[in-house]
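Re: Re: ligand-bound prediction request (bumping)

Still looking for help on this. To restate: I need the protein modeled with iron/sulfur cluster bound, output as structure tokens. Inputs repeated here so nobody has to scroll up.
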Amino acid sequence: MIWQDPSASLHPLLSIGTQITEHLRYHLGLDAATAERRAIELPGSVRVPAPASALRGRPHEFSGGLRQRVALGIALAREPKILLADEPTTALDVTVQAEILRLLRDLVYERQLSVVLISHDLGVVSSLADRVQVMYAGRVVESGPRAQVIGAPRHPYTRALLAALPGPAGARSRIQAIPGSPPLPGHLPGGCAFHPRCAFAVPGCAGEPPPLVPVESGVLLACPVEHFGARAPK
Ligand code: SF4
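Reply:
Sorry for the wait, this slipped through. Here it is.
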């Protein structure tokens, strides 16, 4: 089941109750009375305060965090085993983001749920994920346990991403941006797609796309330069 930005998944003109009821009727084949009964329980299951009155509201009457909870409740209504969470904390302030992540963590344990989290926010990824896959231009370039990938990244793109994170509040260091722009789909560079932007590229990098191969402790890496020991200084 997919859980995504509520601005994309909630209809702005319909009440929350109507949207939940329609979802339950359409996807679970419930009759109107049963769907309405289930709809009343659903906001409470994702800790929406005053669930009965919440059902009468429209999305614009809710805060970003509450809309996100409602979208999560709808995604969980069919009791999926796997939840695909696509940028679940986009546009939320840090306090609300922390609440949503806490809720998601609790639901993972309560419901024995597996979550595939898609995010550009490495803070969110490192607070939630057991395993991390870093993708560039549609391909996985590094994959492994969180501690290895985030704590000791090996692929030049992963390392560049982490180096581009802002420092702690008050720190006066410049953000190290990755030079250039991501390639357009359909116009990928030959060989390693990251080579035009990679500080450690060698001529062979423009040849064949590097395969993703196991290197150590469950880590898979698509960078032969890194793999064979020409490790660039951090
Ligand atoms: S294969 Fe070459 S270009 Fe690609 S990440 Fe490794 S060093 Fe950089």
